[in-house]
Amino acid sequence: MRIYLDYNATSPPAPEVVEIVSRLMATEFGNASSVHAFGQRAKAVLDDARGQIAALIDADPSEIVLTSGGTEADNLAIRGATAALEGTPRRKIVTTGIEHEAVLNTIKALERRGWSATTLTLPETGVLTTDAFRAALDRDTAVVSVMHANNEVGTIQPVAQLASLAREQGALFHTDAVQSVGKIPVSVKQLGVDALSLSGHKFGGPKGTGALWIRRGVRLVSTMTGGRQERNRRAGTENVPLLAGLGVAAQLAAAHLANTARRVSALRDRLEERILATVDGTAVNGDRSARVPNTTNISFDGLEAESLLIALDLEGVAISTGSACSSGSLEPSHVLRAMGLPSSRARNSLRFSLGAATTETEIEFVAGILPGLVTKLRRLSRTAAALR
Ligand code: PLP
Q1: Pocket test residue of 72, 100, 333, 335 for ligand 1, highest count of atoms within 8 A of CB
Q2: Are residues 184 and 325 in the same domain?
Q3: 236-260 tens-digit pLDDT
Q4: In this structure, are 248 and 269 located in the same domain?
Q5: Buried b vs exposed e over 142-171: b needs ≥16 C-beta within 10 Å?
Q6: Residue among 105, 197, 199 to mutate when testing ligand 1 (max atoms within 8 A of CB)
Q7: Any idea what the CATH number is for the domain that residue 332 is in?
């Protein structure tokens, strides 16, 4: 049995998505910018997708810029908005330490070009306080980027409140909603943000697809130079079949969101409770209420998370640590570190992220094998430590 509990890394495409992508690969090869009938048909496909994505986030289709994914949407929002403000007195960017690298490394690159940045740490809850946020804002702040839901712990930030504080200071507010869109209701109107990123492959769409929603009137300099596609905001011939797949995934997510969220959160809570009750020295990282329904991040005292990940993989269970393995050395999760957790705890934490296809049988299986695996690995690590 193969059990996939790594939906925050990527999700399997829905059959309807696979069907439309493969069909349109064969039938809709037109360039959506061409004036002839082939081009017009391709453009109509893109318009449908744009409408479906807009409906999922309560937006106007004309404000959707189709991209190659969440990373590109984050880059376009942050680089595009700051470039449009070059030459003004506003020279500061405000963000948090728990953002995805697509945001953090983009802001680091801008710092090297003379922008200043304030990167906020968070309390252990993983939820930013409005007081800490307010204190970081001033009239120099050009752009704020605070994620909606975190990819490792699943915590949800009070984006509507934060965006209204940013607006009071005249700063633009971007939110990376890659991990919330398709999992919880997202309305750009209710959030009151200026720009929002989403990614298709996190909610049953194809990889290499995404979108940036950008409020009409917000100035943005395109990061990609070339043709005039996407109202001059994103140059390059659109990938019509894949973007049609993103549209269908958005439509399916909108139709099933409430039911899926209810079912998946019950399974997540069950898994979490079983682990906490049957495995000593375990704790959930981050706030358990302000969280997307599919994610739990759990620390296992006295255990290298990587060894449990490998042991679970050998049993056919796919999960994630959330830590990046760079040049052979395991870095503790920057998210857990930014939440003030010690690096030892950041090193022994694992993320379980469930999805629409997760079943009760799978959760029972995982909960059933975990206590034995943890006991065995803890014994092994104690023996290794004694031999050292
Ligand atoms: N932002 C967040 C919060 C993510 O979790 C991810 C993907 O892991 C991204 C951005 C990047 O999205 P993509 O893989 O579509 O480039």
Answers
A1: 100
A2: no
A3: 999 999 999 999 999 999 999 999 9
A4: no
A5: bbbbbbbbbbbbbbbbbbeebbebbeeeeb
A6: 199
A7: 3.90.1150.10
